[in-house]
Amino acid sequence: MKILGNLLAITLLIFIISGCKKSDDSSTSSTASTSSSSSTSCTVSYTHVGKVGDNSSNKVTTALAKSANFTKGLTVFGINILATTDVPDAKLLHAANVAAELVDNNEDGTVDNLCVLSEVLKISSYVNMHSKDNATVTVDLSPLDNAGVVDSAGDSVSMGLGHEETRVNYADNSSHDASIEEIFHLITQRGYSSVYPTVFGESNTSTSTLAQAMDVARGGEQRCAEESCTWTYNNSTCPDNGSVDSGKAWYFYTDSSADYATQMTEYIYWAVSSYFGMHDSTAGKTKADSEWCPNTKAELLAQDPTVYNLIDNSTYAFPSVMPDASYSYYTYSTSDIQTF
Fold this sequence. Notes:
This protein is an alpha/beta fold. It has two domains: about 170 residues, no CATH class; about 120 residues, no CATH class. Helix content is about 35%, strand content about 10%. Helix 3 packs parallel to helix 6, helix 6 crosses helix 9 and helix 11 packs across helix 12. The radius of gyration is 22 Å and the shape is globular. The N terminus is likely disordered.
């Protein structure tokens, strides 16, 4: 009986080890809950790289992409990244790596926040890569819009990204990597805002925790839902070190085309990118100072503890390491790029 017991114990141990072995298949299906305060759960099936149109639940197809004047693309964790012919393959792959690092920030091959990704994929969100300088192709998103690749308000669910602004962060001592910004905008607008509306809801009527924190950061509440908005602030300068005086604005984005919801999108981007050190340099401070003061993690904590604590809360799984366009779990290559 003792020998039989030992055999059973060994068999059980082998079963447990086998069950824990990581699969070599890049296709994964997982389930997660949104938070401890929500009973909502989500199941997401994803691959680290895929072809546009392969997922039948995604409304973006190669035919629609081609009719919008895109000629190539790929999917990263199910997110479509579409590009025009004048986008170099290297820039498309750069964006793919950044997208992967934002979704899987610890680069272990597993999505950090499944429910956020689920919302991003649910409405077939996509990145629209094109040339901003000397463009030889004009993107026309109407075929995609007309096919229902839009949100509940009928607006496009794409995020535009110029390949010229897709670069090594501040390598030229003046310009940030806009791929980090624009892809992160897609994730917060279409993901976090929907999954956690009372905390991160982005809309012109939002009273979310994020909205209230932003009002303080702007020196007081200002709302506008028009195509052209006038924004005024009680401060628009940043100290060389330390915090802005109490009651004064430390976020003063003035773009007249930005409504209140867009202000929120920019606010959470500045906060998270400062949290993971994207602007922690002389060039970064110069760039940030035109609209945002706490450009380092330490300054963010001192100046804006409310948003800092939201970002620092593991429940929401915000990225804490800046993407460097080198995703270690999977190596994206030109062979992954599909032409239409």
